[in-house]
Amino acid sequence: MSSSLRCRTRIRRATPLLLIAALAVAVPHISFAATIRITCADGGGDLIEAGGRSLLSVGLCDVDRTADGYCTFAFVPACPSCLLRTIPCSPDGLLEACSGPPAFPCPYSVPHYVLPTPRRAFHRTHRRIHVHSGTYHATFVLRCEIGLGLGVFATQIDSSATPNLIGDWTLTETGGSTTDCPVQVTQDLTTPSLIRVAEQGNAVRACLDLHVDYPPTANGTVSEAGFVIDTGDLGLYSESIASTSAPNADMVAVTEHWLVPPPPHTLFCASKDDATMFRVPPIPCQNDADCLTQDACTRCVQARCLRSPLCQ
Predict the structure, then answer these.
(1) Cystine design at 24: which of 101, 114, 134, 168 (Cβ 3.0–4.6 Å)?
(2) Do 97 and 89 form a contact (C-beta atoms < 8 A)?
(3) CB 20 within 8 A of CB 41
(4) What is the pLDDT of residues 112-161, one digit of tens each?
(5) Which residues pair with 242 in a beta bridge?
(6) With b meaning 16 or more CB within 10 Å and e meaning fewer, what string describes 274-310?
(7) How many domains does the chain have?
(8) Is 238 part of a structural domain of the chain?
């Protein structure tokens, strides 16, 4: 589906830098200097502290939700500043800064920081980050502690389930289009270029078209007989992608189907296209550092950079 149609069903959020700039414009005569400590337990749980205030379980870490030997932080700098009142924030400003990640498994487009866990229990690793934007100045001290359940990451991504759809896929139309929709509609019914798929058991959840700001998600199932994912009602349309054969390691033939408008509304028209999904090959690696420079949500497993299944 092209961005021209999707934009009608989505509200664009401000970027982290725009959020900070907006806060600075709102209070142009105040210069902020604050040190905020964010302590994270590998696998989940965080504590933020500043100015004598503290809050537990804010959700700034561990965003990979897995005890894998790393603490993965992801946040808009204005969020902890607003929560701890180190800067003045309106209710709307707080909501915007702390809106959280999009629907899983779509990527969370805010700064990510990764710290390794310490070698010993009750110790911490540290990283200091300075943020300057206009009159906004803040220092963040990120601290990582050993959590519970080390090794969960390896068991989650080393799945022997067949077929395995986990990962990023490109889609290419291969023809075979049939439609009873007018040209004004079909010109907007285009194949999403990049899909991210998460899988648990035979349940599948996908983020359609990673190249747009807030892509729709789709749910479905997978088995040896194939798979199907469906967006459900997106307001103007629904979209499904299905295959009657199990994918191999690299590609799978699929059929895309659009209903305009989506059920339970009276059908106006339908469109179908044949396409092929190609798996985006993992980046080769020798250690985790090779992967972290590319994507904070990936780790080196069997000489390949693989995504932590729950990380955004």
Answers:
(1) 134
(2) yes
(3) no
(4) 999 999 988 888 999 999 988 878 888 999 999 987 654 444 334 444 45
(5) 228, 255
(6) ebbbebeebeebeebebbbeeebbbbbbeeebbbbbb
(7) 2
(8) yes
Q: In which residue are the tokens 């990640």 written?
A: 101
According to DSSP, the β-strands at 167-179 and 112-116 are unpaired
Domain at 179, CATH number: 2.40.128.30
Sign of CA dihedral 77, 80, 85, 90: positive
- Residues 146, 72 within the same domain: yes
Q: What are the strands, taking DSSP E only, across the chain?
A: 32-41, 46-50, 53-56, 70-74, 112-116, 125-133, 136-145, 167-179, 194-200, 203-208, 217-223, 226-230, 238-243, 251-260, 269-279, 298-301, 304-307
Instruction: Give the tokens for residue 289.
Output: 């550092």
- Using CA atoms, how far apart are residues 127 and 56, in angstroms rounded to an integer? 20
Cβ 98 vs Cβ 79: under 8 Å: yes
Token pair 């059929």 in the structure block, residue: 255
The sign of the CA dihedral 156, 157, 162, 168 is positive
Residue at 1 is within a domain:
no
Whether residue 123 sits in one domain with residue 29? yes
Instruction: Provide the token pair at 92.
Output: 């709307």
Q: Are residues 59 and 105 in the same domain?
A: yes
Taking alpha carbons only, the member of 299, 292, 303 closest to residue 113 is 292
Range of the domain at 216: 159-279
Whether 305 is in a domain gets the answer no
Whether 310 is covered by a domain: the verdict is no
Give alpha helix (H) positions in the chain: 3-6, 16-26, 78-83, 91-97, 152-157, 183-186, 288-292
Number of other residues whose CB lies within 10 A of the CB of residue 89: 21
Question: pLDDT tens for residues 200-215?
Answer: 888 999 999 887 777 8
Per the structure block, which two tokens stand in for 163? 């077929």
Question: pTM of the predicted model, to two decimals?
Answer: 0.76
Specify whether 169 is located in the same domain as 270. Answer: yes
